[in-house]
Amino acid sequence: AQSVTQLGSHVSVSEGALVLLRCNYSSSVPPYLFWYVQYPNQGLQLLLKYTSAATLVKGINGFEAEFKKSETSFHLTKPSAHMSDAAEYFCAVSVAGSARQLTFGSGTQLTVLP
Amino acid sequence: KAGVTQTPRYLIKTRGQQVTLSCSPISGHRSVSWYQQTPGQGLQFLFEYFSETQRNKGNFPGRFSGRQFSNSRSEMNVSTLELGDSALYLCASSWNQNPNTEAFFGQGTRLTVV
């Protein structure tokens, strides 16, 4: 079975600072990895996904993530935080044979300080 | 193009009652998945339907059931509600069953059991 661990349930950064949200996965087969963002009282919006093509994936709103197989990681970064980035972020994994089942991490609440 | 629509957005039910939630996927999408989101357990997969057939099911009791209609709309039902069923229920649609395909989420139905 696959699993995802997100280190840090709460992360605070200053506006303009680097955003780094950590995600480590466990899977016995090649994974597909996703980052989603959730704003209060909203559903999930896809930021980016890794599907075995390029290891450095660029997403929406200036976010990117790098797949590192040796470290089983898929950390999310953004060079300069904006107030509008404050939200909860979820890393998720799916694998071939699991149909459309996504396994989510526990989420990281990002706070952006003025 | 309309997004995933979930109705109702908010629901209050009494313990022991049953409830039906509805999800209309994006036009052309044939896969519909359901997730339960709670502060304690996070995001957990309930089940997935494709072409009116349940293809995958998470680890939930039989009180949780669902179905999909020929137009791909889906409903989920929870019988004999318990206080612990209070959660945000999210529906996601995809155009196929490939695990690397993006899932588009609705805004969710907030169920409160009293």
Task: Report on the architecture of this protein.
The complex is a heterodimer of chains A (114) and B (114). Chain A is an all-beta fold and 114 residues long. In chain A, 0% of the residues lie in helices and 53% in strands. Chain A has strands at residues 3-5, 10-14, 19-21, 24-26, 31-38, 44-50, 56-58, 64-68, 73-78, 87-95, 103-104, 108-113. In chain A, strands 2, 5, 6, 10, 11 and 12 form a 6-stranded mixed beta sheet that branches. A 4-stranded antiparallel beta sheet of chain A has the order 3-9-8-7, with no helix packed on it. A two-stranded antiparallel sheet of chain A has the order 1-4. In chain A, β8 and β9 (73-78) form a beta hairpin. Chain B has 114 residues and is mostly beta strands. Chain B is built from no helices and 11 strands. Chain B has strands spanning 5-7, 10-13, 19-24, 31-38, 42-50, 53-57, 64-68, 74-78, 87-94, 104-105, 109-113. In chain B, strands 2, 4, 5, 6, 9, 10 and 11 form a 7-stranded mixed beta sheet that branches. In chain B, strands 1-3-8-7 form a 4-stranded antiparallel beta sheet, with no helix packed on it. In chain B, β4 and β5 form a beta hairpin. The model of chain B has no long low-confidence stretch (mean pLDDT 95).
